[in-house]
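Encode chain A's predicted structure.
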Amino acid sequence: MPDRKTLIIASNNKHKITELKSILKDSQFQALSMAEAGFNHEVEETGTTFEENAILKARSIALEKHTFVFADDSGLEVEALDYRPGVYSARYAGKGASDMDRINKLLGELESKSNKRARFVSVIAISKPDGSVETFRGEVYGNIISEPRGKNGFGYDPIFIPEGYDKTFAELSSEVKNSISHRAKSSAKMLKAISSY
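Encoded structure for chain A:
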């Protein structure tokens, strides 16, 4: 019988794993990376929404490992770019591109736009060992700035200033970011739900 307090994180993104483990550190659940759980292959993200991709990842690993799994699919949606890059946030500048490549592509497309409104979206899917899934969505709104600032965080964090702040996600401390972020919000909903599992 699997330990019901163990959750596998369906990601190979080291930054995301670190952030999620930090969010979960005071909960009653132990978070394991896929590598720590002995799951060594990628799950192809073929969905067209954050929900679809998160469900795909969570369910496939849960059915194989016979345990609880949570998968996060997240990204940046920019109003003036018809909510791109969205689910393609990590692949926005092509395969093998760096965070800075993606940032530069986005800033180039946004340069002539006056509307800089954007939101980060995180959808967490929790799969039980039988493959049944629940999803939890978190969003944080803010604005895109024209030049990257800050060394913390990852992805598009250096160009995103959340509402109510004057610093980018990459300038905020991990403690502050992890208390207000899209992933913190989806994680809080998820923790409340799975406490009854």
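The chain has a mean pLDDT of 90.
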